[in-house]
Amino acid sequence: MSSSKSQAPPDAGTSLREAFVDVCENSFFAYVENCDGRRFAQLAEQTSQAATPGRTSEWLKSAVGFNGAFAGSIEVILPEQLARWLFASLLGEPPEDELPEHQVFDGLGEFANMICGAWLTNLQQRQSFELRAPAVTRMAPNWTPMADSSWNDERGHRLAVNELPVRLRFRALNG
Amino acid sequence: MTEGSTATAAKPFKILIVDDSATMRALLRRVVQLTEMPVEQIYEARNGKEALKILDADSVHAVFTDINMPVMGGHELLREMAKQEKWKDVLRIVISTDGSKLRRDEARELNVSLYVEKPFRPEVVRDVLVQITSPA
Known about the structure:
The structure holds two protein chains of two kinds.
Chain A: H1 12-27, E1 32-34, H2 37-50, E2 59-67, E3 72-79, H3 80-91, H4 101-123, E4 130-131, E5 135-138, E6 157-161, E7 164-172
Antiparallel strand pairs in A: 1-6, 2-3, 2-4, 2-5, 3-7, 6-7
Helix pairs in contact in A: 1-4, 3-4
Chain B: E1 13-18, H1 22-35, E2 39-45, H2 48-57, E3 62-65, H3 74-83, E4 91-96, H4 101-109, E5 114-117, H5 122-133
Parallel strand pairs in B: 1-2, 1-3, 3-4, 4-5
Helix pairs in contact in B: 1-5, 2-3
């Protein structure tokens, strides 16, 4: 039995976090910190409380699939408030400006695209990857990162960007 | 359209930004405007096909293009540009998330002057614009 695809390098998880920090700090001028489970739960709880009950979820997910030396996808989940702040920061616009949702989604897609590209380039300098177009979605109304057990694996990162919670992970196609 | 405002004697020029992301197009437009270089016009296209229509309709001095785009990607656009003698002097700049050696080599073969990885520093764009306005 053979496969043309390699498995993800062992340091892929650490390297993804480094790419995330690089993009946040150098392009979006945002401060990133690691969170332990308790701190992350606190920030996530604050985010959920700030959302209007019964309305759409505050949580947005941006995913970018890729194919190359190894295949998979990266996913970033963050509150809409942070997505709006990042977009405004990138374009030098006041964060209080009410941007249309499609612009926020486009900006969040580009954010994940940059992270994925920086990560894969750092991991595999000599090999090329095919990146798919980012898919940005809003999570279900009552979704919280604490209640989603699919995020409890070793490749997921709990982070805070400007004191707002972010979940980051990659999912390799071949394990 | 963006009017240049510098008092230099440099000839105003036109640039074309090709990216499927409205965010990236807006970012590049903003970076160009911040350089205060004498830019006469900034065109935008969402893919290579739209870019070719603009190139056909007006003379452009520099093209900033992404690689991965729907309808027609950056490589196909650059290949089409290479076929036309009238576009031989247009400066080609790739701005892409893919910084691999393979992609860079491909771009070099398609007369790309500069390959910029996203995320990029605004100074890179300014350096390109200075190159356009500098005497050969």
